C-alpha cells in the first residue's frame, strides 16, 4: 500500500504515520525527518535547507523531489510506504505521479487553534528525532526520549513566528492538494483532533477499506 499523509503542520501526520508503519511493517518516509537529519549531519543538502526550514518556508520543489525519488530507490519500499509531509505543493504532486503510483491519500483535519496549541507543546528527540508532546505524548521521564535516552528539545520552526508562517504556507501551497487528490478520487478525510490512539484506529479502519 502506497499512501500519502496530508494535513496542516501539527495535524499529527508524523505521530500517526510512525505507529501505522510499525503495524504494517512498511517504511515511514518523512521529508521533514530527512531534512532534519541532513541538517544535523551538516551535509551539502543540510546546509542549503537549514535557514529555509527554521523560518518555516518550503524547501524548493527540485531539492525535495530529488530527495524523495532517491529514497524510493531503496529496496525496502517494495511492500509500500507512507509519505509524510510530501507532496506539499501541486508541482511536487505532479512530479511524484511520474515515478510512483499512490493508492490513497489520508487527509488529517484539525483547526488552526489546535495546530497552534499542539506545535507550541511539541518536543523532539535531539538524537533520534522521535516526537513527543508535553500534554498528549509524554515521555516516561520528563525531557528524555523513551526510545534512545536522548535529550528532548523544541524545534526551531515551532517558535511562534515560524508557526504562523508555516500555517500561511500551508494554506497557500499545500491545501490545494486536497482538491487535487479529491478530483482523482483517492482522498480520505480522517479527523485529526481526537487523542492519538483514536486517530490511529480511525486511520486503520479507513486504510482497511481501501
Ligand atoms: P510539519 O508537518 O510539522 O510542518 P515536517 O517535519 O513535515 O513538519 O516539515 C518541517 C519542514 O521541512 C517544513 O516546514 C519545510 O520547511 C520542510 N519540508 C518538509 N517537507 C517538505 C516538502 N515536501 N516540500 C518542501 N519543504 C518541506
Ligand atoms: Zn530518541
TrEMBL record:
Keyword field: ATP-binding, Cytoplasm, Kinase, Metal-binding, Nucleotide biosynthesis, Nucleotide-binding, Transferase, Zinc
Residues that hold ATP according to the record: 10-15, 122, 194
Residues reported in the UniProt entry to bind Zn(2+): 125, 128, 145, 148
Residues that, per the record, bind AMP: 31, 36, 57-59, 85-88, 92, 155, 166
Any Pfam family the entry gives: ADK_lid
Region (LID): 121-158
Chain spans, region NMP: 30-59
Gene Ontology annotations for the cellular component aspect, listed alphabetically: cytoplasm
Biological processes annotated in GO: AMP salvage
Pathway(s) of this molecule: Purine metabolism; AMP biosynthesis via salvage pathway; AMP from ADP: step 1/1
Broad class of the protein's primary localization: cytoplasm
Primary enzyme class: transferase
GO MF term list: AMP kinase activity; ATP binding; zinc ion binding
Comment field on protein domains: Consists of three domains, a large central CORE domain and two small peripheral domains, NMPbind and LID, which undergo movements during catalysis. The LID domain closes over the site of phosphoryl transfer upon ATP binding. Assembling and dissambling the active center during each catalytic cycle provides an effective means to prevent ATP hydrolysis. Some bacteria have evolved a zinc-coordinating structure that stabilizes the LID domain.
Subunit structure: Monomer.
Family: Belongs to the adenylate kinase family.
Entries under HAMAP family matching the protein: Adenylate_kinase_Adk
Stored PANTHER family: NUCLEOTIDE KINASE (PTHR23359)
Protein name per its UniProtKB record: Adenylate kinase
Source species: Candidatus Thalassospirochaeta sargassi
Amino acid at each position: 500500500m502506497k499512501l500519502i499523509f496530508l494535513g496542516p503542520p501539527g495535524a499529527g501526520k508524523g505521530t500517526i504515520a510512525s505507529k501505522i508503519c510499525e503495524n504494517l511493517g512498511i517504511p515511514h518516509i518523512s521529508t521533514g525527518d530527512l531534512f532534519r537529519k541532513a541538517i544535523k549531519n551538516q551535509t551539502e543538502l543540510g546546509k542549503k535547507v537549514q535557514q529555509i526550514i527554521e523560518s518555516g518556508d518550503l524547501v524548493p520543489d527540485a531539492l525535495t523531489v530529488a530527495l524523495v525519488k532517491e529514497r524510493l530507490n531503496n529496496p525496502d519500499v517494495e511492500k509500500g510506504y507512507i509519505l509524510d509531509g510530501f507532496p506539499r505543493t501541486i508541482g511536487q504532486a505532479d512530479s511524484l505521479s511520474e515515478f510512483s503510483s499512490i493508492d490513497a491519500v489520508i487527509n488529517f483535519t484539525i483547526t488552526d487553534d489546535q495546530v497552534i496549541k499542539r506545535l507550541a507543546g511539541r518536543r523532539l528527540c535531539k538524537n533520534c528525532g522521535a516526537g513527543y508532546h508535553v500534554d498528549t505524548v509524554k515521555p516516561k521521564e520528563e525531557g528524555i526520549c523513551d526510545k534512545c535516552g536522548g535529550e528532548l528539545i523544541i524545534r526551531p520552526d515551532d517558535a511562534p513566528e515560524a508557526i504562523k508562517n508555516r500555517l500561511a504556507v500551508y494554506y497557500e501551497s499545500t491545501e490545494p492538494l486536497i482538491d487535487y487528490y479529491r478530483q482523482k478520487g483517492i482522498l480520505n478525510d480522517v479527523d485529526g483532533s481526537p487523542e492519538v490512539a483514536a486517530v490511529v484506529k480511525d486511520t486503520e479502519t479507513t486504510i482497511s477499506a481501501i
